[in-house]
Amino acid sequence: MPPLSPFYVLRKLLSNERWQRLHVKASAWAVVGVVVVLVLGSWAIVPFESTAPRATITSFPLALWWSVETATTVGYGDLYPVTAPGRVIAVVVMLVGISVFSIVTASLATWFVGSAARRARAVARTLEHVEREGEANAARELRALHTRFDRLEQLIARDTGPGPGPADRG
Question: Are 79 and 71 in contact (CB under 8 A)?
Fold first, then answer.
């Protein structure tokens, strides 16, 4: 793969241990961030929604449940904001939830791809080692066979004497 190829650069980045640790840290901070946004969003939405007509989010536990189902994009439809400020808070919770779950999914994918790439590299190194050893063994065996054939030829020549001369051949 050429060094300027985007796939080459991506492969180099994904195989970098420091980059992978950065993904784990980013995922951890993303999870902390989403928990903070869920709690703050729940806390912020209750004053706007609890007194509104036809409100479904009337307490902190209900708001917390709503924020979790909104951030995870489940959205059962049982709880929803009816005021404009509540809807703005809902948009923030949705965007943060979608972003965080995307980051976590990308980090998991990076981890799986990285571990599969490490295993593939280990298998390739083992295969190269086995091939080199096999070639070296074959070369040693070939030299040993040549040595044995040379000795056999010497023994045959010694036991039978010189080979037939030109007068004996024809």
Answer: no
Please state, in angstroms and rounded to a whole number, the distance separating the CA atoms of residues 152 and 68.
86
Query: What is the domain range of residue 28?
Result: 23-156
Give how far Cα 140 sits from Cα of 39, 55, 145, 153, Å: 72, 86, 9, 20
- CATH code (residue 87): 1.10.287.70
User: Which tens digits make up the pLDDT trace of 54-66?
Assistant: 999 999 999 999 9
Report how far apart, in Å, the C-alpha atoms of 77 and of each of 38, 51, 59, 69, 146 are: 17, 19, 17, 9, 84
Contact 45, 63 (CB under 8 A): yes
Q: What is the pTM of this model?
A: 0.56
Please give the tally of structural domains in the chain: 1
Say which residue the tokens 């007068």 belong to: 167
